[in-house]
Amino acid sequence: MLRDASPSRIKWATRLAFFSIPLSGFLTDIYLPSFPSMAKALDVSEHEIQATLTVYFLSYGIAQLFVGNLLDAFGRYKPRLIALAIVFLTSLGITQLHDIQWITAFRIVQGIAISLVVISTRAFFVDMYDQEQRKHYLSYFTIVWSCGPILAPFLGGYLEHYFNWQANFYFIAGYALLVLVLDLLISGETLAQFKKIKLREVVANYRLMLSHESFILGIVILGLSYSVVMVFNIAGPFVLENALNSSAVVIGYCTLILGFSWMVGGIVSKKMSSLDMSKRILYASAIQVVLCITIAILSMFSQNLYLFIAFAFLIHICSGFLYTIFFTQSMLTFPEHAGVAGGLIGGLVYVFTSLSSYLISTIGKIQTPADLGIRYVLIAALLLLLMCYVSRIYRKHTAT
């Protein structure tokens, strides 16, 4: 447990845990407004810059599949400290690199490191608090995490405007170093008893979950829902700068607005949780398809920044709405294996999101808002088909 388990130290350690949560969001989104300037400064293509985000998501997702078991075996504290040190050093390293391949490699390492930070932070609340207190604190986890993706591109836009793309990674390095120093001063090991990794048991649990149709279907839907956001994150900065003549600051504001829309979708979903699930998912998905088709058509005739962001805001609300529903449903599928299920969901969703969004964004060039709108239509149409299938299963189970 903590070196000094006094109420005061636990309170400060809890505050520090919350303070560290947005770091993963900053690593993802803070440099999005700098995509165009990075491509020019490094003299590489748009796809090569976009790949630095895709591989980060892939490594972050894959690592989550294994991190939980490792933290149960080796504790939370030392792996977390090592991971924070790695984030600090790799962020500083990226600022000095001018080779996109090395930057991409460093982003892979950062994805693995941040998965250790995120999972160990979740485990902190499980280790330190009883069930009722845990619910209280974990209910704020998603809200605090959302601060990263919402604020990061807004801050990154200004860092790019007044300094350069490297300033984003200097900020991340500073944030990681601050958390590391505070961790050394305040925190400690919270795992009471270390557990041996039982490979046969782990494999059996994974096999059980991966053979469960609704569980896997939920993960696919989560991946597609988040792909809506990822397609914009990957291609949006280039579209806004090249087609709509937007500055890095404007790109930051746009990403800030769309990040907020995801949170709105989650809040609306929670407010409507008492309504029939089948109707909720079908209506939300159908509305999203209509919005996507509308903006794709309108963008062919008018390239207006405000119009495009307004429609994208509503489209992202629908995705956040669906994501919240299916994340809850997926987590409730295996309550007796919540830890393993959570790692599997988080890992596979990020892997699926990375692959699907990258594939969709690389099917032809995305140079105009209309190109981006067509990608929205593709994802929304796939989601609607899946919603029809899920709704049918849901009605069948309800009738039974």
| Number of continuous helical runs | 16
The profile of the biggest β sheet is: none
What are the segments in which pLDDT stays under 50 over at least 5 consecutive residues? none
Instruction: Output the CATH class name of the largest domain.
Output: Mainly Alpha
CATH architecture of the largest domain: Up-down Bundle
CATH superfamily caption of the largest domain: MFS general substrate transporter like domains
Offer a few descriptive terms.
400 residues; Growth Hormone, Chain: A; 2 domains; 16 helices; sodium:proton antiporter activity; membrane; MFS_trans_sf; transmembrane; MFS
3D architecture notes:
The protein has helices spanning 7-20, 23-29, 35-42, 46-74, 77-96, 100-128, 131-138, 141-162, 166-186, 199-210, 213-242, 248-271, 277-301, 305-333, 338-361, 369-399. It is globular, with a radius of gyration of 21 Å. The protein has 16 helices and no strands. It is mainly α and 400 residues long. Helix 1 (7-20) runs antiparallel to helix 9. It folds into two domains: 1-187, MFS general substrate transporter like domains (Growth Hormone, Chain: A), CATH 1.20.1250; 205-400, Growth Hormone, Chain: A. The mean pLDDT is 82. It comes from Sphingobacterium psychroaquaticum. Its main location: membrane. This is Drug resistance transporter, Bcr/CflA subfamily.
